[in-house]
Amino acid sequence: MKKLIILTLFISNYSWAFTLNPTTGRGFEKSNINIHVANSDCSGAGFSTSTLKSMVSEAIEDYWNQVPTSSLFLKSKGINTSIDINGDDFNAALLKVPSNTIVAGCNDDVPDFSSPSILGAAVMDCNGDTCKALLILNANNSSLNSMSRSERIAVIAHELGHAIGLGHSEYTHNLMYYSASGKKQKWLGEDDIDGVSYLYPHDPELAGLLGSCGTIKDIGNPNDKNSFWFQFLLGLMLAGLLSNRHLLNKFSKNSR
Q: In 3-state terms, what secondary structure has residue 220?
């Protein structure tokens, strides 16, 4: 009995390492999200607006659309010629973003950037079931200008993580590690995968009675009965395995 109690408490105290966007604490209501590229000048960052469009597409396909345990599907809609965010602060630029959409663009004069060393930032705003998000790259940044294409894509993917509702991770091997500078990895870490699967799980009705493998239960929520019974049954199984192992060892000793 003591073994069962210890195992159950250990499982119940497990906590996820990913964090959510501190502004919203949530993601978009729907998993299919369109991304528009603003028709803003990116030459200060060392590339064209057309190149930004292709890098956004690569960031989508190489990172966030590659998670099998998540229903998230980001789709690049190309350059939106009616949206220009150059010279806007975050609030003004966010007003130009359509509902349930993400806009990515460059800006060489963002009043909200407290330092020219900032590579970029993403802001998210939700009202009821409606969310919108904005990703701005600092076109007045020498570090961004000197980066390789793969590093820029990783930075864009990092900011897209904030735009879909994720916060930072404290572990360096994750894309959402708090420092986006010098990122070279071409994969998502465990926190990244857990976080996007938590925000955008597969529909459990489509995955049978046990739910989908991408559904992450809030084990800190006392109202989550499925999570409680899962932990309880897993504790029983582990305790049974330990008990059987103890009996086998005892039988083996008595047989000598």
A: coil
- Please state whether beta strands 120-127 and 130-138 pair in parallel, antiparallel, or not at all (unpaired): antiparallel
Radius of gyration of the chain (CA): 23
HSE toward the beta carbon, residue 69, CA cutoff 13 A = 16
3-state helix, strand, coil in the chain (%, to 5): 40, 15, 45
Q: What is the number of H-type helices and E-type strands within the chain? A: 7, 5
CA 163 to each of CA 15, 80, 177, 204, 214: distance values in angstroms, whole numbers, following the listed order: 23, 18, 15, 25, 20
235 is written with which tokens? 């504790």
Axis crossing angle, helix 225-254 with helix 2-12, rounded to the nearest 10: 140
On whether the CB atoms of residues 79 and 104 are closer than 8 A, the answer is no
Give how far Cα 85 sits from Cα of 7, 36, 40, 64, 80, Å.
54, 12, 6, 25, 11
Q: Is the pTM of this model over 0.90?
A: no
Cα–Cα distance between 159 and 156 in angstroms, integer?
5
Burial 133-142 (b: 16+ CB within 10 A, else e): bbbbbbbbbe
What are the tens digits of pLDDT across the range 177-225?
A: 987 555 667 789 999 999 999 999 987 655 443 343 433 333 334 444 4
In angstroms, rounded to a whole number, what is the distance separating the alpha carbons of residues 219 and 12?
A: 7
